[in-house]
Amino acid sequence: QVQLVESGGGSVQSGGSLRLSCAASMRTFSSIVMGWFRQAPGEEREFVATISWTGGNTRYADSVKGRFTISRDNAKNTVYLQMNSLKTEDTAVYYCASPLAPYGSTRFRPNEYYYWGQGTQVTVSS
């Protein structure tokens, strides 16, 4: 059974940094695209970043480009989201996700992902 477990969330002041981790229990991790999404209260879940199964291709939402970095360590079955220069509008629950099938290209629509973690809260105060 596939499990995705996020960690690293917390409270930070505006301008600060956090690094989120997502540990995946799946045998196909090194062959699968991974993504990060977030959801603020009263808002729809939105795309943050995605990374190809090799790690060589990444895509970001315009709102986080230049501040967030997605990376992965296939030996550890873990994907990361380094978040710098955090803003109050980054406050949300952050989720990692993976599609059902391995390989394929990076993707940014929530309905293109099948497995989801439980989420980790990130709160940025001014």
Query: Describe the biggest sheet?
Result: 7 strands, mixed
Number of continuous helical runs: 0
Q: What number is the mean pLDDT?
A: 96
- Percent helix, as a range, is under 10%
Unreliable sequence segments? none
| Count of individual beta strands | 11
Order of helices and strands: EEEEEEEEEEE
What would you call the quaternary organization? Answer: single chain
Radius of gyration: 13 Å
Silhouette:
globular
Beta-strand portion reads over 45%
Distance between the termini: 40 Å
Task: Summarize this entry quickly.
The protein is mostly beta strands.
Task: Give an account of the 3D structure.
With 126 residues, the protein is an all-beta fold. Helices cover 0% and strands 47% of the residues. It has strands at residues 3-7, 10-13, 18-25, 34-39, 46-51, 58-60, 68-73, 78-83, 92-98, 115-116, 120-125. A hairpin with a 4-residue loop joins strand 7 (68-73) and strand 8 (78-83). It is globular. The mean pLDDT is 96.
Topology:
Blueprint: E1 3-7, E2 10-13, E3 18-25, E4 34-39, E5 46-51, E6 58-60, E7 68-73, E8 78-83, E9 92-98, E10 115-116, E11 120-125
Parallel strand pairs: 2-11
Antiparallel strand pairs: 1-3, 3-8, 4-5, 4-9, 5-6, 7-8, 9-10, 9-11
